[in-house]
Amino acid sequence: MDNGSQDLSEPSFVSLLGGIANDAKELLLQEVALTKLAVQYELRKAKTAAIALSIGIGTVATGMGIPEYEAKRYEGKIKEVGRLISVHSKNSDEVKRAKEIFEQAGAHDISYTEEKGVPKHEEIRV
């Protein structure tokens, strides 16, 4: 005889939907946590690469005849800000123009130096 009551051994449609919603929520939370860990890992890698790059630039700059104090300054700026932009200019007009462009863009700590000329070697013919 059916008196209108449900069999308690089978879950209702509403409880199934609730279970699916809870599982979806749990998966979403796990996905967010994994994404956060992945971003933190990538940031650590980027920081390590930036430090290695700044040390490399400092080493190369010192080897190129740039005074050590200036190379250390570049290295410090890269560690602090994360960027160093270098421009090669052929004459003083280009230096002025580059400085104006950087100033208009809001750049900080704009400076310039002159390179020593590279001595030209005569070709040796055999």
What are the salient characteristics of this protein?
126 residues, mainly alpha, 0% strand, elongated
* Percent helix: 55-70%
Sketch the major β-sheet: none
Beta-strand portion reads under 5%
The end-to-end span amounts to: 115 Å
Low-confidence stretches: none
Helix-strand makeup class: mainly alpha
Rg (C-alpha, Å): 32 Å
Rounded mean pLDDT score: 77
Figure out the total of helices. 3
Walk me through the structure:
With 126 residues, the protein is mostly helical. The chain has one domain (15-104). It is built from three helices and no strands. The chain has helices at 13-63, 68-81, 92-104. Helix 1 packs antiparallel against helix 2. The longest helix has 51 residues, at 13-63. The protein is elongated. The mean pLDDT is 77.
Please outline what is shown here.
The protein has three helices and no strands. The chain has 126 residues and is mostly helical. It has one domain (15-104).
Q: How does the SSE layout of this entry go?
A:
Blueprint: H1 13-63, H2 68-81, H3 92-104
